# Entry
Amino acid sequence: MRSLANKRAIITGGSRGIGLAIARLFASEGTSVTLVGRDEARLSSALDSLSAGEQQHHHQPPARHNSYAFDVSSIDGWTGMLNDMKQTQQNVDILVNAAGITQQSLLYKSDPAENQRIINTNLMGTIFGCQSVSQQMIRQKSGCIVNISSLLAVQGGLGASVYAASKAGIVGLTRSFALEVGRFGVRVNVLLPGYIQTDMTKPIHVAMDEKGNLSASIPLRRLGTAEEVADAAAFLVKNPYAHNAVLNLDGGLSAT
# Structure
């Protein structure tokens, strides 16, 4: 397994939830992390938490972290960040596309503008990230991309039609894009988390529990944690033969 030390990782959605958990784990193993999000205050708080985590893992060499505030569905945002990183001679070894927004509305009652926002953030943000960052990875003949999809991409979910469509698109993107860039030494994989405990998903899980015991529907009888998703992302990055993999992380729910 390859080390995460002395690498540079861009992590979208890195100011909270799964993205932040991945950033913390990578930073603890010596990765220099670039966080991407829309809220500058949250990004600043997240950067502080990375530094605190490094102090607890002082055996690793110091890493340099930074952040960029922009909407991942803006190609100009991606271009501006990468141009800035190029000026400061920062190579990109890892990209984790974890930015995403959820949905809790029936399609025939949903707001078209909100549906477009879900597609733009979840799917187009991932597409633009892969498109932009892979150009540098191809030039350096190395790199690893992990896209965060969802179990709902293949299993569906009540009130999540557009969200599921956006996440299914990420799976299709990954499977095809991996075929394009593997010959350049660039690996692309996708993670499909099931029900994961985060601040963003908590209201949805509470609503689902009102209709039935959510945990009881999962073979492991519990929800997953963001830290467990981070462990899976690290595995995909570290294993040099992991390419075009679709990894479920759902406590066995996909088998039911």
